[in-house]
Write a structure and sequence with these properties.
It is built from 15 helices and twelve strands. With 361 residues, it is α/β, with parallel strands linked by helices. Among the domains are: 183 residues, Rossmann fold, CATH 3.40.50; 54 residues, Arc Repressor Mutant, subunit A (Orthogonal Bundle). Strands 1-2-6-5-4-3-7-8-9 form a nine-stranded mixed β-sheet, with helices on both faces. Strand 4, helix 7 and strand 5 form a beta-alpha-beta unit.
């Protein structure tokens, strides 16, 4: 990636690259690695997309300018991967979101944070616990991150309003959902920070929430689950947190309450018992906390990969995610060449890149 501050043209290009068809977070990062800037990557994209594939849609300059204007109208600030304001803990996620829209105090995104998540239809006791934990964490110097949903999320935000809270949305930063949280949303804009990787004006759909949950855990040093049924988005957030190397905490509850089954099951799987803020602080002091992963050792060559190599790698792909080092062994090619081939195949619609160096057809 390009080093140093990003100029306006590069920031605009990074937003445009992030909104390009078939360019997900994995290929976004690899394109920056290969070409050094989004400006040069966009110049190369038409040829890469057409090579042995079906082509793809690069958004027009006007379309990206419209998104920028929409952000300005609601008072939102754009943060792209590589910006000084991009939260360092989230940048260490594999792969990080390419762009973020924010409203409020962007500096909160880079402070030490703890997420509190849980049931939308939460008990009065669960909401009291969430609010109390958020208040105590804030007084201990932590920002509290959650998803602005009803129940536990709303209670956590309310408890940390005066000390710092971040709400991560599935829709755009102007998508106030649920509507009855409009007052809380306004308070967070004034005192905290709203963040989303979705375009301004986008209304949240079901597919947006796993991405939202990944940012909640990615911003945080640990995730606390207060109440959650076995099949719930809160447990997805906890699973993502574990994958990202975050500490997972669970507040125990009565086995008679279905909302306690999720946290109790997490405890059976090795989550850290959380009965108060002291449990969180003690865990951070005694357990190995998140360390940034080592840089990707597989440089992506800037030169084109010929069609014969593309076909060899494509023939080895299947619906089952396959590590790129396994593909390199199978086709007898250097792993750097295979990584480059996978990037080209993904851009031409012949492969899908997944986190952790995996790929499918």
């Amino acid at each position: 990636m390009a080093a140093g501050p990003l100029d306006d043209a590069e920031r605009f290009a990074r937003l445009r690259l992030a909104r390009t068809e078939r360019v997900g977070p994995v290929s976004f990062r690899q394109l920056l690695q290969r070409y050094g800037s989004a400006v040069r990557a966009l110049d190369a994209l038409p040829g890469l997309m057409a090579k042995g594939g079906k082509g793809g849609d690069i958004p027009s300059l006007d379309r990206i300018a419209t998104e920028m204007d929409a952000g300005a109208r609601v008072g939102a600030a754009l943060v792209v991967l590589g910006d000084a304001a991009y939260p360092p803990r989230l940048a260490a996620v594999d792969p990080p979101p390419p762009v973020l829209w924010t409203r409020g105090n962007v500096a909160l995104l880079s402070r030490e944070s703890v997420a509190i998540v849980g049931a939308r239809i939460a008990s009065a006791g669960g909401q009291r616990i969430a609010r109390g934990l958020a208040d105590s964490l804030g007084r201990s110097g932590f920002v509290v991150v959650s998803g602005l949903a009803r129940g536990i999320d709303a209670a956590a935000h309310a408890g940390a309003l005066d000390t710092g809270t971040v709400a991560v949305l599935g829709g755009g930063v102007d998508d106030v959902y649920p509507p009855d949280n409009a007052g809380l949303y306004a308070d967070i804009v004034e005192k905290g920070c709203i963040v989303s990787e979705s375009p301004v004006g986008h209304r949240a759909q079901a597919r947006d929430f796993p991405r939202r949950n990944r940012i909640i855990s990615g911003l945080s040093r640990g995730v606390i689950v207060v109440e959650a049924e076995i099949r719930s988005g809160s447990l997805i957030t906890a699973s993502l947190a574990a994958e990202q190397g975050r500490d997972v905490f669970a507040v125990p509850g009565s086995p008679l309450d279905p909302r306690s089954k999720g946290p109790n099951d997490l405890l059976r799987q090795g989550a850290i018992l959380c009965e108060g803020v002291d449990d969180v602080i003690r865990a951070f002091e005694t357990l190995r906390s998140l360390a940034e992963p080592p840089p990707d050792p597989f440089d992506i060559p800037p030169e084109d990969v010929d069609l014969e190599v593309l076909d060899r790698v494509a023939a080895l792909l299947s619906p089952t995610p396959t590590p790129r080092d396994e593909l390199a062994r199978a086709c007898g090619l250097p792993i750097q060449v295979v990584a480059a081939a996978l990037l080209d195949l993904s851009l031409s619609g012949r492969a899908t890149l997944l986190p952790g160096g995996l790929a499918t057809d």
